[in-house]
Design goal:
The chain is an all-alpha fold and 164 residues long. The protein has one domain. It has helices spanning 3-24, 30-40, 53-67, 72-79, 83-95, 106-109, 121-131, 148-155; strands at residues 99-100, 103-104. It has a two-stranded antiparallel ribbon with strand order 1-2.
């Protein structure tokens, strides 16, 4: 098999996988993702109209897997979150080599997301911690991070419980 044939085969396989995920998962819209996230991880201390930033980060990570992209513009358009918020997540994920060349690395998200839509909690929350800039992978480019949670609160001061 020539290199060109291999690349075409790889592209076909990746396209088929993304199509499989879109067809097999019940996550269709960002509101479906948000609803399922809140059902799986309810927070009794938060009123229903207040979203914690780590929930928003989780929704961005799920959206990245389901859409098959780590492109900031596409994630902004799909989720409705700000460019600054998603760019901070992208910086942390790229710094830790979890998002590479505009994609969430399969070997990373398959550790927590299965094609039937089920989530392995520990691995998922570890990725959320990385996306929030709280932890780093051993192979990260640097120990620098951005704080998407702070950006989130700054953009939604009425939700920040510390700002009265």
């Amino acid at each position: 098999m020539t290199n060109n044939h291999f690349e075409r085969f790889k592209d076909d396989l990746e396209s088929g996988l993304q199509e499989y995920l879109r067809d097999r998962t019940s996550f269709r819209l960002v509101e479906d993702i948000r609803h399922k996230f809140n059902l799986k991880y309810p927070d009794p201390d938060d009123p229903p109209d207040h979203e914690h930033p780590m929930v928003a980060v989780g929704i961005v990570l799920l959206s990245s897997v389901i859409l098959g992209t780590a492109n900031v513009e596409k994630l902004v358009k799909f989720t409705g979150y700000s460019r600054n918020f998603i760019s901070a997540i992208a910086f942390n994920m790229e710094n830790n080599k979890l998002w590479v060349d505009g994609e969430y690395r399969e070997e990373q998200y398959w550790r927590w997301f299965s094609p039937d839509g089920s989530i392995e909690d520990g691995e998922f929350w570890e990725n959320i911690g990385i996306a929030c800039g709280e932890t780093w992978e051993p192979h990260a480019h640097s120990d620098t991070s951005m704080d998407p949670c702070e950006i989130y609160w700054d953009e939604r001061p009425h939700q920040d419980p510390t700002k009265g």
